[in-house]
Amino acid sequence: MNTLSGRKLVIGGIFVAVCAIYLLRLFFIQVMDDSYKLSANNNVLRYMTEYPARGLVYDRYGTLLVYNEVAYDLMVTPRQVKVIDTLDFCKTIGIKKEQFIKKMKQAKAYSSYKESAFEKQLSKETYAALQEKLYKFKGFFVQTRTLRKYPQEIAAHTLGYVGEVNDKIIAANSYYKLGDYIGISGIEKSYEEELRGKKGLKIQMVDVFNRPKGRFKDGIYDTLAVSGQNLVSSLSAKLQKYGEQLLQNKTGAIVAIDPSNGEILASISGPSYNPNLLVGRERTKNYGKLFLDKSLPLFNRALMAYYPPGSTFKLINGLIGEQEQVTFRETRYPCARGYPVMGGKPKCHPHPSPMDLPGAVSTSCNSYFCYVFRSIIDNRKKYANVVEGYNAWRNYVLSFGIGKKIHTDLPQELPGNVPTQAYYDKYFGKNGWKSSTIVSLSIGQGELGVTPLQMANIICSIANKGFYYTPHIVKGIGPKKEPRPEYKIRHYTKIAPEYFEPIIDGMQGAVDHGTSTAARLKDIVVCGKTGTAQNPHGKDHSVFIAFAPRENPKIAVAVLVENGGWGATWAVPIGGLMIEKYLRDSISKPDMEKRMLEGIVLSTEKKKAKETE
User: Fold this and answer.
1) Rounded CA gap, 418 and 450, in Å?
2) For residue 510, which of 346, 347, 318, 344 has the smallest C-alpha distance?
3) Residue 261: what are its φ and ψ, rounded to 5°?
4) Contact 60, 232 (CB under 8 A)
5) DSSP state string for 151-185
């Protein structure tokens, strides 16, 4: 009996304990814990995402380049939508009944219980009219967010644009939800995490008429949005705008960099577009027009277009020849308006001959650098065969940031092309090629492909006598006002500093009395090199690279005008004007400026289109 009594007490105790636990839990849920009330009161509470303001973007002098403007998204929770006056609703927000039906189907397909955007980016006027009637349209509410605005209307490719996330982005990153926006290109994409900030949440009480009645529990469950960090770009808004004006009615690119730190002062791709076209409700329509435009205004030529560098590449060949000790300042080679070894091909223009290395640079002698290239590749005292010589030459070229990505902080950068041994083996057959087969590389032609950004980086390396900083577009992030650490590192070429002087002497000579005199400036020593890049699809491209002043350079610039012909025709004057504008903020050659601003250079395709009109 005692045993049976004990068991009863144990079992009874267990039941009492379980009941006590349940009672305590119910008391906690109903009296102490409000989180369950949130779930139970979903039908009278509205959960609104607080979108943070994206960070602002300034130029290097504090000029505002990107700011935010308030926009209004009309949201809907399908299961809360009751019978409404559809015609009145559609008239108020400016859509047709067919659109209303389609949008409701899309919202229900996403979720009947979760809110989603019904109509995005309402105007202030539409928002005001809707607010007066919103109580009639149960299940609908307005959510505030911001849109980007570009007050200077410049640097579209560099600043980039913002667009709505897709399913792929949402699946890859849990931060983003349907209807969120993300940087698609330019700075907006590269610095998305810094610019976007952190979303918050606001829980709002609404009455049976869908009217807001205040914050739930005085906002104790709300979380604040944290604004994105502001960015200070390295761009000079004034120089950027000036460069875009110089490149109007032309196709090509201009890139200007401060050699002392790698900061990009201007990055221009022409044709361009007004960045405000890709903002707001008209964005989709405008993007379609830009995408179909045959002049390719969306294509960032500064970072993505491959061009033969032409005679500007002679600078690198001369430096490699010096480093390899097969070329010296005093070295002279003959020129009979062409490379004698190959019967006068490649051809050359008239100039005194023979000339030393600085003279060959200033006059841009094709024959001279063909000899230099051959002496590097065919140096049998050092290399057993042409393949070894070529690979050594190619490694020197790669050290200037050509044929590989520089890893700038702008997206969509392409690496350019320096052909490999394998390429030539495949094309000509193994042991089927020699220095004369690929001699066009000596003057920047053949299979070489260089982006304008890389051209500007080459001239930075020469201005610094053997090193460069990775070109970057942001010099300050948030309160630190410093660039990312990787942009403070020097990258050295494979050329010793002492070999740059003869090349720089030749570049100064080119501007003072050679092929680049249109870039000459009073009291400022400009060092430059022209290029006339052969184009199999039409007229040659006009190319110019330069830096100034010679001592303690402050700007390096690369200019390429497609189908512009001689380098001296378009690229040199534009480069000289860019240098003077930056260093002096004034122009001493108004006639030249007028000719560049008003000049029209039509591509082969545009000429054909015009002829058929």
Assistant:
1) 8
2) 318
3) -150, -5
4) yes
5) TT---HHHH--EEE--HHHHHH-TT--TT-EEE-S
CA-to-CA distance for 557 and 573, rounded, in angstroms? 12
Q: CA distances (Å), 563 to each of 176, 325, 606, in order?
A: 45, 37, 11
What's the rounded Cα separation, in Å, for the pair 366 and 505? 18
Tell me the percentage of the chain whose pLDDT exceeds 70.
90
Domain extents for the chain?
50-233, 237-611
Report the predicted TM-score, pTM, of the whole model to 2 decimal places: 0.85
For the stretch 575-597, pLDDT in tens is 999 999 999 999 999 999 999 99
Peptide bond into 590 cis (omega under 30): no
Q: 1-10, 309-318, 436-445, 595-604 — which is least confidently predicted?
A: 1-10
CATH number of 237-611: 3.40.710.10
- Structure token pair of residue 485: 């650490």
Query: Alpha-carbon distance 175 to 62, whole Å?
Result: 31
Q: List the structure tokens of 87.
A: 């015609």
CA distances for 273 relative to 77, 252, 293, 406, 421, angstroms: 38, 14, 11, 26, 41
Going across the sheet that includes 45-50, the strands are: 45-50, 200-206, 212-215
The maximal CA–CA distance of the chain, rounded, in angstroms, is: 129
Per the CB < 8 A criterion, the answer to whether 318 and 363 are in contact is no
Q: Which residues contact 142 (CB under 8 A, 6 or more apart)?
A: 72, 73, 74, 75, 122, 127, 130, 131, 134
Closest CA to 520 of 489, 479, 550: 550
Give the fold, CATH level 3, of 50-233.
Penicillin-binding protein 2a (Domain 2) (3.90.1310)
Amino acid making up residue 452: P
**Residue closest to 254 by CA, chosen among 540, 558, 578:** 558
How far CA 93 is from CA of 15, 105, 124, 218, 284, in Å, comes to: 62, 18, 11, 32, 19
The two three-digit tokens of residue 372, written as one number? 């230099």
Distances in Å between the alpha carbon of 541 and those of 240, 303, 310?
A: 22, 17, 9
Helices (H), 247-385: 283-292, 301-304, 314-323, 357-363, 366-377
SS3 content of the chain, % helix, strand, coil (to 5): 45, 20, 40
